[in-house]
Write a structure and sequence with these properties.
By secondary structure, this protein is an alpha/beta fold. It is 45% helix and 11% strand. The strands form six sheets. A four-stranded mixed sheet has the order 1-2-3-4. Strands 5-6-9 form a three-stranded antiparallel sheet. Strands 7-8 form a two-stranded antiparallel ribbon. It binds one RNA strand through helix 6, strand 8, helix 8, strand 13 and helix 12.
Length: 550
RNA sequence: GGCCCAUUGGUCAAGUGGUUAAGACAUCGCCCUUUCACGGCGGUAACAGGGGUUCGAGUCCCCUAUGGGUCACCA
């Protein structure tokens, strides 16, 4: 077989050689140890928390080492393309603080290693494909889908490994004349890799996360170019990551099974391998079983889910860092005020087994993160969020800016600050009592207090209420009212002698709290009252008195 | 089913042949306290199972089990 002739026959228009591209995309001039990473989503527009997890690893690796972090769009599959997806992807990553040094951007591409859309790189792939044909390592395969299906059935019935390989790879042996004839009939074909691997052999490869992997050699004649001339993921990965001079390929563990094929391709072309970093999947629990996060089955795990609930990007980022590197939490405790960028991220500290995504933990992390954000900023974030996802409250928030900020600030100072705020939806619920439109009596008055007493206590409270009282004066008045009505002025007194009292001052203050905010639990009511102002306070107490029909 | 990867409390996990097997979240109890939080103290709770190797195994090897991934002209 004259491979050279075959190559020219198959790719008559490809006149560039690999060395042309080697020169066009030279080794990057970066300092020693600089890592070049990329994320390479397909343009479905859907980004989920697992993508973010991987992207953070890429970003940290690159930025920490003075390298390059880029965005490449893997749009080799027409069926997966969604309108506006690229912008959605970029926006989502940017929301969580991820920006790119190179590659696809909102206003076009940046960088010298493009194009960064795979669909625009056809010539580059075909050039490498042509080279492989010349070397006798790739060949056209005219098999139809039906023929392939038939082959599979036969292999299944014989209980042998399915696929196109070895003696089953019939069209490996096509003569040049046969190929010419088929081409002249305009038969469509794919370009297959001619594997020289042996299923029985194993080889070792270092994975930066998992250590030494023992894998079987590839022996399948995988498809390099589809019949439309566009490469499969496998071939595109090899070509792009080489010419874009990517040093570290961070990707999910689903690629482990095709790694042998990628390795064989790199070797066949004569290129060095990148450092592979196969991350574990994030899992979820379903019916008691762990399961890979799936974008089809778990739309709630899309990034938009968190954006809609109003999780602060810094909180999501902080949580992801804790599952990304096992020593991050420890570092955080030692460096509570440092930026996550000061943490030294390492691949060795990444988990090799799939972590369950833990919403409880996210919430916990979020509380701590929000505590460090000034109330004014949280207000702005809340406003921005409502503008997108809860427009009906935007007006309220704007009208009551000062009050809202004060409400968000209650008890956040000092060395034992409250951690009430988690995410916007929850935050609004937390302060919603303030707005008459959302205020409602949700809890019952304490069981130690009957309705008649409640009415009386509230009446007396209203009489003595003076917004000018400081917190101590205010509470002393409540103590007096409590005592005068048979309630212990201190909870301890009641505990000691429960028979002497109907209840204690806490029961009285809870009654006032319910009248004011409708709930039995809340931050300090004196502070809330100062924010509400005298009129609103009096109105709510009076309303409660009137509600009680005794 | 073949192949590959994984397996320490409910969850995230430290651990690289000798530890009373860390820590965090959750949970429970107590303390603080006008409620709830916050905070403090304490508790319950784990090396999937079985064989080896070794003076000694969570750590190394083998088998089994379980979970996951993958077996496309999808990525």
């Amino acid at each position: 077989m004259n491979y050279k002739e075959l190559a020219n026959l198959l790719f008559p228009d490809i006149d560039k050689t690999i060395s042309y591209y080697e020169e066009k995309y030279p080794k990057r001039n970066l300092k020693d140890g600089a890592k070049v990473t990329r994320i390479a989503p397909s343009p479905t527009g859907f980004v989920h928390i697992g993508n973010l997890y991987g992207a953070f690893a890429d970003e940290r690796l690159a930025r920490q080492s003075g390298g390059v972090f880029m965005l490449r769009i893997e749009d080799t599959d027409e069926k997966r393309k969604v309108e506006g997806a690229v912008k959605a992807i970029i926006d989502a990553f940017e929301f969580f603080g991820l920006t790119f040094d190179e590659g696809v951007g909102i206003d076009g591409e940046t960088g010298d290693y493009g194009p960064y859309f795979q669909s625009m790189r056809k010539d580059i792939y075909q050039c490498v494909a042509k080279y492989l044909v010349e070397q006798g390592r790739a060949y056209p395969c005219f098999c139809t889908e039906e023929e392939l299906l038939e082959l599979r059935k036969k292999q299944e019935s014989e209980k042998i490994t399915t696929g196109y390989y070895g003696k089953w790879a019939r069209e490996r042996n096509l003569t040049l004349d046969e190929i010419k004839e088929r081409l002249s009939r305009n038969e469509s074909f794919v370009l297959r890799f001619k594997s020289i691997g042996d299923e029985q052999n194993t080889f070792e490869i270092e994975d930066a996360i998992r250590g030494t992997l023992t894998l079987r050699e590839n022996y399948q004649d995988i498809v390099l170019l589809k019949s439309n001339g566009i490469p499969t993921y496998h071939f595109a990965h090899v070509v792009d990551d080489h010419f874009m001079r990517v040093t570290h390929v961070v990707r999910g563990e689903e690629w482990l099974s095709t790694l042998p094929a990628h390795v064989e391709m790199f070797r066949a072309i004569g290129w060095d391998l990148p450092v592979y970093c196969h991350t574990a999947h994030l899992m979820k629990i379903e019916n008691g079983n762990k399961r890979k996060l799936s974008k089809r089955k778990d739309p709630e795990l899309g990034l938009t889910y968190y954006m809609e609930l109003g999780y602060h990007p810094a909180a999501v980022r902080e949580y992801i860092m804790t599952i990304l590197n096992s020593n991050y939490e420890e570092w955080r405790m030692a460096n509570p005020d440092s930026s996550y960028e000061e943490f030294e991220f390492t691949l060795e500290k990444m988990s090799t087994s799939g972590a369950m995504f833990d919403l409880e933990k996210l919430n916990n992390v979020s509380k701590d993160v929000l505590l460090k954000i000034p109330a004014e900023d949280i207000y702005e974030f809340l406003l921005e969020w409502s503008g997108k996802y809860k427009t009906e409250i935007t007006g309220l928030l704007e009208k009551n800016k000062t009050s809202v900020i004060r409400l968000l600030s209650i008890g956040r100072e000092g060395n034992k600050p409250r951690k009430d705020l988690i995410y916007c939806e929850q935050i609004f619920d937390f302060i919603s009592y303030f707005f008459d439109e959302y205020f409602r009596i949700a809890d019952r008055i304490p069981e130690n207090i009957d309705e008649q007493d409640a009415k009386k206590l509230l009446g007396e409270y209203l009489k003595t209420y003076d917004p000018k009282d400081d917190q101590n004066q205010w509470f002393e008045k409540i103590r007096k009212i409590a005592e005068a009505n048979g309630y212990a002025p201190r909870p301890k007194d009641y505990k000691k002698n429960p028979d002497l009292y109907k209840g204690h001052v806490g029961d009285v203050s809870t009654t006032i709290r319910i009248a004011l905010i409708g709930r039995a639990n809340s931050p300090d009511i004196w502070e809330i009252q100062q924010i509400m102002g005298e009129d609103k306070v009096r109105a709510r107490i009076e309303n409660m008195i009137n509600r009680i029909k005794v």
